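Example record

One chain of 81 residues, shown exactly as stored in the release files.
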Amino acid sequence: LNYPGARKFQSLALAELREDMEFVYKPAQMFEERSQGPFHTVHEGVGVMSRFRIESSSALSLFLDRSDPSDYHQRLCLHTT
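Predicted structure tokens for this chain:
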């Protein structure tokens, strides 16, 4: 859901459409957005949907070069079993 006033994460909205599937989401970062429309909090992360049962999950933050001003989005790897 990418519109002003949206209250759900896109990954959660997708999961709600397919209640027959397993779903895991891990946030990579959150930040306050003031330059695009009304003030809101942005959540960035990764999700996995599976028709198979998800027994466990773990996330690993990937390298972020803080000396590079263009590298400001935290990335992560999501592992599920």
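Notes: Residues 56 and 81 are 5 Å apart (CA to CA).
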